[in-house]
């Protein structure tokens, strides 16, 4: 139980104020403070664990904490810091993990009763890499069931709330990953993105979210949804954090974000589909962001891209069939354990024929070539991250039409990035829960991170 500041001695109040400040610093700023001897990794980890225990919403954000592991990793990080042998900037920084990344000896259930008490023997490869980089594993966060929803509603396990509206959903499927950061319960979160599952919760909780190119970051030891679309990426407080977390996940080096500028940057504003049925707040946030990017020197050109609409039309014959193909036997063994809306979405994949699926992929590959040729002369494509704000959780549970409409609209813009296998980043616009998305060509993460580092400064 937290003691009221008024009852503490001045030195205790100062310590409490400092520790509370840690909870809202960027991951990289915390890393610099550890390197400077200003922050003890053990004290930092205990501060985050205490926050997770005391926060009234913690049970809706964390599926389970990994306290013993976190404390052991923090002690090892402190020992390295004490002798000047830190492994990198993020050594000693506590982060959360979406509950589809395997953790050795700790349940990984992917937000589903179908996987209850599933305990893997080994860590996911990305967790191995991040641990080697010195990050501290705080615990596993709640998510949409089997990652197959962009809104983050999960009546089976828990539904994390949006930081801007506690009655609304947080966005999915990496809902707990986003809210662990937004509510100050982790310095960063690691999620996955198959149709927008990093970028939607990041945008709706005013964070930075990085969608990586499919196949770039290892999915080994990650509970799959659609292998041909699944990606791994961070949700965090800054573009710098995203760059360093990507490096940690891969075991590589972070992008060099020094001397970045928007002066002369060419941005293609996608007009096809992206603004259909857009709500006022996301449009206001996007329009305001575009004005600031232009004021910082960016050149914005409005363009149509019919191939984006054609690709979106293929969604129904590409995502659900692969997801159902992976999970059919598990689902049909105990279908009553699933949230009916998610069950229905998976089962829709059974209605797609193999010839249609193959033809759909061949068509998508052709559309990707057209898209990449169209955007090749631009530094990025920009569009609203989502055309809607976070929907009301109670109404989603009681109004099926509302659920379907909001779920499809939530992921509509982000799904373009997955269909085209683009690298993508969402940034906050300053309007609550309204993000601006930057899409690049496949494997352009470093270039996109450099651009977004400059854009981030223009949008602050």
UniProtKB/TrEMBL annotation:
PROSITE patterns: AMIDASES. Keywords: Transferase. SUPFAM superfamilies: Amidase signature (AS) enzymes. InterPro entries: Amidase, Amidase_CS, Amidase_dom, AS_sf. One of its GO terms (molecular function) is transferase activity. Transmembrane segments: none annotated. This is Asp-tRNAAsn/Glu-tRNAGln amidotransferase A subunit. Residues 44-449 form the Amidase domain. It comes from Litoreibacter arenae DSM 19593.
């Amino acid at each position: 139980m937290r003691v009221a500041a008024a009852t503490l001695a001045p030195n205790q109040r100062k310590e409490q104020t400092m520790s509370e400040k840690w909870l809202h610093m960027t991951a990289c700023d915390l890393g610099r403070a550890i390197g400077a001897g200003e922050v003890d990794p053990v004290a930092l980890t205990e501060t985050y664990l205490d926050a997770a225990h005391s926060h009234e919403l913690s049970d809706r954000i964390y599926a389970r904490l990994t306290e013993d592991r976190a404390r052991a990793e923090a002690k090892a990080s402190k020992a390295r810091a004490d002798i000047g042998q830190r492994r990198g900037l993020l050594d000693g920084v506590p982060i959360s993990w979406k509950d589809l990344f395997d953790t050795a000896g700790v349940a990984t259930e992917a937000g589903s009763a179908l996987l209850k008490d599933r305990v893997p023997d080994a860590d996911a490869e990305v967790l191995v890499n991040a641990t080697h980089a010195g990050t501290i594993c705080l615990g596993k966060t709640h998510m949409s069931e089997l990652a197959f929803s962009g809104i983050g509603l999960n009546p089976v396990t828990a539904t994390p709330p949006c930081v801007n509206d506690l009655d609304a959903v947080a966005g999915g499927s990496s809902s707990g990953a986003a809210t662990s950061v937004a509510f100050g319960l982790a310095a960063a979160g690691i999620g996955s993105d198959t149709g927008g599952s990093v970028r939607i919760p990041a945008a709706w909780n005013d964070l930075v979210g990085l969608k990586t190119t499919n196949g770039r970051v290892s999915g080994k030891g990650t509970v799959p949804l659609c292998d041909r679309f699944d990606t791994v990426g961070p949700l965090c407080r800054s573009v710098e954090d995203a760059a360093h977390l990507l490096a940690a996940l891969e075991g590589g080096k972070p992008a060099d974000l020094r001397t970045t500028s928007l002066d002369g940057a060419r941005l293609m504003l996608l007009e096809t589909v992206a603004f259909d049925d857009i709500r006022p707040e996301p449009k206001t946030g996007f329009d305001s962001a575009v004005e600031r990017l232009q004021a910082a020197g960016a050149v914005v050109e409005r363009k149509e891209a019919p191939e984006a609409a054609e690709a979106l039309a293929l969604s129904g014959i590409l995502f659900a069939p692969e997801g159902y193909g992976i999970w059919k036997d598990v689902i049909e063994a105990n279908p009553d354990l699933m949230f009916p809306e998610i069950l229905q979405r998976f089962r829709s994949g059974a209605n797609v024929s193999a010839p249609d699926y193959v033809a759909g992929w061949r068509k998508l590959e052709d559309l990707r070539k057209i898209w990449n040729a169209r955007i090749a002369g631009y530094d990025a494509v920009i569009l609203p991250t989502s055309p809607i704000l976070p929907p009301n959780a109670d109404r989603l549970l009681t109004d099926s039409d509302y659920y379907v409409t909001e779920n499809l609209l939530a992921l509509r813009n982000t799904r373009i990035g997955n269909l085209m296998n683009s690298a993508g980043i969402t940034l906050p616009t300053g309007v609550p829960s309204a993000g601006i998305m930057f899409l690049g060509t496949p494997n352009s993460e470093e270039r996109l991170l450099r651009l977004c580092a400059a854009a981030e400064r223009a949008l602050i």
